[in-house]
Design a protein that fits this description.
The protein folds into two domains: 73 residues, no CATH class; 136 residues. It is 21% helix and 29% strand. It is built from four helices and 14 strands. Helix 1 crosses helix 4. The longest helix has 16 residues.
Length: 209
Amino acid sequence: MATVYIETSVISYLTARPSPAMLAAAHQQVTREWWDHHRHRFEQFISPPVLAEAARGDPDAAARRLTAHGSFGAATRTWDNDSGDGLWSTPENWSDDTVPVAGDDVVFDEACLSNCVADAVIADLGSITLASAYTNTVLFLAGAVGTDMTLAVTGDIVLEAGQLVFEGDTSLEISTSRRLCLHGSLMAWCCRLCRHVARRPKPLAGKRA
């Protein structure tokens, strides 16, 4: 299978609102047609610098670009706090020096036993895991996940140890087919768990504040 390199303009044309300019509109249409009908024929590669560029600018537009990136397939980002500042938003604090984007699986383990302050987080993560060796705290600041503090996770949230703490009113959205597995602590001043299912979920093991 041939490999194609996805650069910033592809993501921009794909996610931008329809342009009134004829040439730009044509680029958008061609890009969407390739994306919808032909990209599956190729192995696609997008580099960390392209992701960093896609994350800049208008917050809503940046969110659309990063969400599109999630369809490439999830990457696993492991906390390492290499910069020493303890902030989620610092690229150097993650494996491959890349901040987690939409669809990524986020892991806290023995690679770094230091606290993490989640100051700016993309809403649609793949999964969150605090491994058994990680006995520290991941603190989501109020407003870290948009103004409404709604964190949607398409995969599992697994706390084998440590603490996952949210400041302020928070909503966690996970699908009915996924797990919320608690052996560590999930704490918030007001935390609402939303499962996209009509029936009441089974009681969850562990403790919740």
